[in-house]
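Dear colleague,

Thank you for sharing your sequence with our group. We've completed the structure prediction you requested, and as agreed, I am returning the results in plain text so they can be pasted directly into your records. Please verify that the sequence below matches your submission; if there's any discrepancy, let me know and we will rerun it promptly.
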Amino acid sequence: MGITTKDLAQLCGVSRTTVHRALYGGGRIHPDTKEMILRVAKEHDYRPDLLARGLVKGRTYYIGVVVMDVRNRYFAGMLSAIGREAAQHGYNINITLHDNNREFEQDQLTRLSSYRMDGIILSSVNEGPEYAKFLESLETPIVTVDNKIADGIPFVSIDQRAAMREAVEHILEMKKYERIVFVCPAMAVAGEQNIYVHRERKKGFEEAITGAPGVQAEYVLNWEYLKQVEKLAQDGIRTAFACTADDFALDIMKYLKEKGLRAPVDYGIVGFDNVDTLKYITPQLVTVSNKVDAVAKAAVQMLFALINAGQEQADEKSQVAEQEAQRRVQILPHELIDGETL
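Please find the predicted structure tokens below.
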């Protein structure tokens, strides 16, 4: 049997309360005493009983994370960042994937709540006031990222509209494209799934292109986008493609390369996400960084603030809740990453 906090208290000549303060934080303790307890714990290979600790504190020390899938490098990066930040708080993560299935997402959230996750981070394909009521009925702190569900639900993202507007304005500044094509296959499921980020990016495109003299605007909004893009790239009009995801942009570059067309010689192209695999791509894709690490870190920090607020004493709870309500929406900076494809 491993060493216990009672054993540590006897070895260090302090109370068990002092040992708990040294190991887990909370309460006042002299720095020298804390250092001594931590040293003795390490020397005797002390391993905390997280189950017992959780029962005492009413926590599981797990947070759930629900995203689309891990084939998309954006979500893979997000999961890694969430895991790193959660570990800084002594937490593990329970990952579930909804694969763009609205009903399955709801089932996964119900399951995570039943398993008493201390909180959940969600990238949702559902939206609207009724779904917001469902989330609230789970009585589990939830922070949403990227796809906004409804007002009042904690939310972290970048300004998607401003980011796409800046990307298109960058294309316009080149003054060598007669046409800019907005490529967003995800718009094909509008009304069926939450595509908030793509709707916002479309608005940003329209804001930038409206009134641009001598530049045509075109839209490719379905899953047959590769053949449509090929026709547009070959019809003699100097064209740039503004894609709502790096995955779409990379598919286009690969497809058009097979047809003998290369960026930026035969067309221009911009992506969105700045996924980690871009460093292996030539020519380097112009894209927008949505700061996935910063978004993930902010979401975890917001979630822990909500978790902690829910465990405050009743006489402090209203003040804490009010403070947290003021921080329930965080819009973080984005960055335009220049490259070689315009």
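Summary note from our side: The longest strand covers residues 62-67.

Kind regards,
the structure core
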